[in-house]
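Hey, quick one: can you model this chain's 3D structure?
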Amino acid sequence: QLQAGAALMQNQGINVSPTLTTAINSYNSTPLITPLLNAIANGNAVLTSATLSLMQTIASGTTLDVAGNSLSNAVTLNGGIITTSTGSGGAITGGITLGNSSTLSAATGAVLTISSTITDGSSTYGLTIGTSGNTGTVVLSNANTYDGTTALAYGTAKAGDNAAFGTGALT
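Sure thing. Here's the predicted structure for all 171 residues.
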């Protein structure tokens, strides 16, 4: 079933790296494979926290939905989106490193809480808060050190620290 899941991912146009294939083939767990196969069967590349332990980089065009979960893994947000959907809350408690400008979003009625530090290393990457149609709340609890622009596009952003929106411009 796991090998079939990897093959199905490739057929859906989702890049399956050798590392991921090895991890999938060596990991036999219903909590992992069920959400992975459901996401594939629905024709989208939405990852849940159950699959993130294998895939810690959220690339452009990929969405990590943490609805109803608190994710403690460190994440590289490389142009993708972290969201919480369907009116439920979700949280990221592990660190976030921006590998490209990226987005944090919450569905209407939902709250996405980022209680870890967001950095961008020696690069300058920005963060967009909100996506079209999603008017929920994004909470940035800590001081963040990324130095790109923070663009408030949709929804509500709440700061838990004076430096929650990084060191760049706020628009």
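One thing worth noting: Confidence is low (pLDDT under 50) at residues 1-6, 8-55.
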